Amino acid sequence: MINLRSVYHYSEEQTKHLVMLLFVMLAGFLVLQSLFSPAVAFAALFSVFIVVVAYLRPHFTLAGLALYLPFESLVLKFIPDNVYFFARFFSEGIIYLVAAVVLFGLLRGKIRLRRTQIDTPFILFVVSLVAAVVVHFVPGTVAILGLRQILRFVMVFFLIVQLQPSKQFIKGLTVALFGVLLFQSALGIIQSGVHGALDQFLLASDERTLGAITLTTGVQEFWDPGSRVFATLGRYDRLGNFLYIFLLIATGFLFTLPEKAKKFQSLLWWVFALGIPTLILTYSRASWFAFLIGFLFIGLIIKRDKKVMAGLFVSIFVILGYLAISGLTVGLLSEAPGQTLSERFFESFSYTRWRGEYYGLGRTYWFVHTPLTVVASSPLIGWGPGQFGGGAAAALHNMNVYEQLGLPFGVFGTEGFIDNNWFSLWAESGTIGMIFYLWMYLVLFHMALRTYHNSNDPHVKGLAIGFAAVMIAVAFNAFTSTVLEIRTVAFYLWLYAGFVYVLGEKEKKYETHSSQ
Is the whole-model pTM more than 0.85? Predict the structure, then answer.
């Protein structure tokens, strides 16, 4: 169990200051609500509170953000319009706030600058993006928002490295996030059990805009009510993404923790008992396959577990037997209302679906035309951030590149994004930029493997190999959606990259000290 007193201890003087701050905030709230609306007053004072907490305990602020993000979609649904802009960018603003605190600490000498193995490729990647902006005369607003969309969560890795959170802190936050997974899973199972009665309450369907910029697109329930669960994450695929990330981290612990860690083992079994059925109920195929790929990576390639090998062969045998008995024609399957679980699974391999996606301007269309048309027209440096395929181009309704190349505006010709983060990044940063980004990604993956092999701590080993599996799963998932930009994926990807890096460096220092 985590001893909170050992994590953070208030002195008598700090307690007095805290009480004084709360009193001042209460008085300020009474004054502000008399001048403005209660929502504006609360937003202003809450901002002050977050600034103070970020200054005192920046790593705790990031932990709070990690716990908040799965609930953000539902929270935003009930935010009034006059403070919606603040609420929408609150989570992202926390990252910039912590960055400012870290920079202030570096300038004052309170924080020692720590260099990492991805500093060089990261700097070169940013330079390649800026070069594309200059060459293609990308408008300033588009360039800034495009850079933000690509880089905002990468910052989290560097912040964690500078803050150097303890092993106990990392373990405590991971346990808390397992708790969030259990809540989301239980809610998802209830959502399925009541056959869609909760869907309208949980679904954030309204679009919110600021002038011509789309702040939130809103989610339309294009699937049968009750057929796919999404809990508080707003979309079934986002719930699936969140689940597979922490199920894979749990898998890492499952294969490395000793039997004597009974309390942690019991928590893991609850995570799997609720998380896997809920993952299935999301009907998110990309999440299914991402989890499966990551699980097999740990079970077969790393641990070479005979039970996993036997399970894989049995599963293949069952699938082939089902196809032979049922007479299901996989090549003719396409998405339709009332689709069964097996049809949803096998549709992934259907030629009819792929053909329909191509002519319907779906994901398959962009698999073909992004490299052949978009990348080919600017192969080395790309078209610049915010110009094609990602969330920034969609939010800004930036059709410049699409019109120049005679292409429809993203999937279905209307959405702006192309449901393939690797290809959108390739088109915007060019082949040179992609080389630098992949350089970063592969260095972190190798770092996770090295930490797993070198550490003697089962918790560190479990986290490291679980994160390596997450990196593989996210890399696959990025071919099917914009996961490298989505809060509930990208934030955790780079957060745990920082955690594993910090733990790996501490293990190296401990080994060096022990050898001396």
Answer: yes
Q: State the DSSP code for 66.
A: H
Cβ 382 vs Cβ 430: under 8 Å: yes
pLDDT band with cut points at 50, 70 and 90 for residue 29: low
Q: Per-residue pLDDT tens for 136-154?
A: 999 999 999 999 999 999 9
CA dihedral 427, 428, 431, 436 (to 10 degrees): -140
Give me 263's structure tokens. 């309390």
CA of residue 172 relative to chain centroid, distance: 20
Q: Can you tell me whether residue 216 is helix, strand or coil?
A: strand
Residue 192 makes CB contacts below 8 A (sequence gap 6+) with 226, 229, 281
CA distances from 137 to 145, 185, 215, 392, 425 (A): 15, 47, 25, 17, 18
The per-residue pLDDT for 84 is: 82
Q: Which class for 1: exposed (0-12), middle (13-18), buried (19 or more C-beta within 10 A)?
A: exposed
Task: Please name every residue paired with 216 in a beta bridge, in sequence order, or none if there are none.
Answer: 208
Summarize the confidence of residues 462-467 as an average pLDDT. 97
Please say whether the beta carbons of 38 and 57 come within 8 A: no
How remote is the C-alpha of 30 from its chain's centroid? 38
Q: Lowest mean pLDDT of 43-47, 82-86, 118-122, 401-405, name the range.
A: 43-47
